[in-house]
Design brief:
Elements lengths: L25 H10 L8 H12 L19 H7 L14 H18 L7 H11 L1 H7 L8 H12 L10 H12 L17 E2 L14 E2 L2 H11 L8 H6 L1 E4 L9 E5 L5 E9 L2 E4 L8 E4 L6 E7 L8
Helix pairs in contact: 1-2, 1-4, 2-7, 4-5, 5-6, 5-7, 8-9
Length: about 325
Amino acid sequence: MLVAGLVQAASEDPVIGQALSVSVPTEYKELIEKAGETCSAVSPNLLAALITQESGFNPKAESPAGAQGIAQFMPSSWETSGIDGNSDGKRDVWDPEDAIPSSAKYLCEIAKEVKGVPGNKQDNMLAAYNAGGPAVIKAGGVPDNGETPGYVRSINALAGVPSGGKMTTTEQAATVINAASDEIGTPYSWGGGNASGPSTGICCSPNGSSGKSIKGFDCSGLTLYAYAKAGINLPRTAAQQYAASEPVKPGQKRPGDLVFYGSSPANIHHVAIYVGGGYMIEAPRPGTEVRFSPIDAMPDLFAVARPARHSNKEI
């Protein structure tokens, strides 16, 4: 399965009956809503988040590992779990009308397979979709294999994005998180990144690091890019982005909000994107790559803030 992503802490039991709030292309909404009722372990919102994570609703997606279609089935998994969802006499992994209900069916199957594994049932089910049920059973939970924990957290984060709110739309928050998640593994580049994506940077950081030969993002370049994908224009630096945002109380932060670090508004030195469950997506520092980190990874968390209504579109 394709990988990427991070975190909204889920409840101990799977979400049941959750309304569809993840952004879904119109042509797939009915399929998602129907397939999301296949069993109690799956909801339309969770299924939509998984498909978004797997392929971005691209029915022609194909991974280097050989996963195929909108739900990114490996051929062996499709052979055992693929169904003829539209009753046209064929089980076609490239046909969303077959692949989306098959994905829900597969989730239900692996939920049963890992039912006895300790820990969060939804996390274990999603981990099994990514790494396989035997791996989850062997690990006694989500395998710490370098990719599956982030994959699980990313889907939970997207599925948990709240709807409504004065300055937030679910679609925009999901777009911001997805855009940043897609850049996991992109190199850090001092001064790198713009509204179009990663770019070579400049010289030099306070410790002398240059981004001139590195195509990637610095912290505020990543947030600027992710927000631009949602139609929201942010200033270039972390301090400027804080000045253009409205702080939110700790208990009111939402996935998609910006997380700022520093000692004062004038000394903001780092910014990241909150994804839920105490995690963020960030471009940390020279020599690293875009990654998921706990928001307490640095000791000088200053504020969580939401871009104010200063642009044509707001989150």
